[in-house]
Amino acid sequence: MRSWVALVKREFLEHRGAFLYAPAVIMTVIIVVLSTAILMNQPELAADAEMPGGVKFYEGAYLGTMLMWSVYLIIALLFYFSDAFHADRRGNSLLFWKSMPKSDLEILGSKVLAAYTILPLAIGVWALISGVVAYLFSIVIGLIVVFYNAPNFFQFLSSFFQVTIAAEIYIFMALIWFAPFFGWAAFLGTIFKRWSIPLFFVIPALAILLERVINIRDFDYSSKIWEFILFRLNFGGDEPQDFDPEVWIMSNESTSAWEMISYGLSNVDYMHMAIGVAILGGFVVAASEYRRRLIDA
Length: 297
Description:
This protein is mostly helical. The protein has helices at residues 2-14, 16-40, 42-46, 54-87, 93-98, 104-115, 118-144, 153-177, 179-192, 196-214, 224-233, 245-250, 257-266, 270-296. Helix content is 78%, strand content 0%. The chain starts with a helix and ends with a helix.
C-alpha cells in the first residue's frame, strides 16, 4: 500500500506545475482582469438597472468558473497521459522504478489512479476557491449597482454547496466518459513519446479518411470512427427542452443539486461508459506490455 501511495504522490510532485502552479497563475490573472474591468466600468455598472437575480448571478458565475476548470482539467489530463507513460524513461529513472516490487502494469495503473484522484482534486481546490472569489466579486458589484443585491451569507453557502456537489459529479462522469481519449493518448505516448500529441489527431484523421475512401464505391461517405468520436464529444447531450436560460438567470431561487444530478444521470449511456473504461484498461495493458518487453530487451 505504501508503494502505491509513493507512486501516486510522485505523480503529483512531478506534475504539480500543471495542476498546482499554473492554476494559481490563472486564478491570479482572472482576479486582476475582473478587478480591472469593474474599476474601468464602474460608472456604467452603477447606471445599469437590469441585472439578474442576486443568487442566480452568483450561481451563473460559479458554474462558468466550474466549466472553465473542467475544460482545463481535461486538457491538462490529456497532456498528462501523453507524457506520463514515458516520462520515467528520462535520466534512467525507469530503471529505479523497475527495481520496485511493482510490475509495469501496476506502475502505469498508479498513473491512471493519480489522474482520477489527486490530480483532479488539486484542480477541484482551485474551483472551490473560484466559487469564493465569485461571491466576493458579487458583493462588490452589489455595492456598485443600485438595483442588484448580492446573496447573503446563508444563500451563498446554500448555492455554493449545491453547485459544487452537482459540478463535481458532472466532472467525475466526464473524466470517465472521456477515458478512451486518455487511454489513446497514453498508449501513443508510450511508443512515440513527445510526438504523441500530433499523432493523437493525425492517426484518427487518416483512419477516417481511409474508411471513407474504402466506402466510396458504395457511395457511403460515413465513418464509424468519426461517429464514435462525435458521440464521445457530445457528453452533455441535448439541452432540456423546458430550460430557458433567461428565465433561469433572472430568478432568485437557489439551484437544486439533485435536479441537476438526476438529469445528468438519466442521460448517461452507462453501457458506453463501461466500454470506455474497458478501452482505457486495454490501452494501459498494451502500454505496460510494450514497456516490459522494450526494457527487458
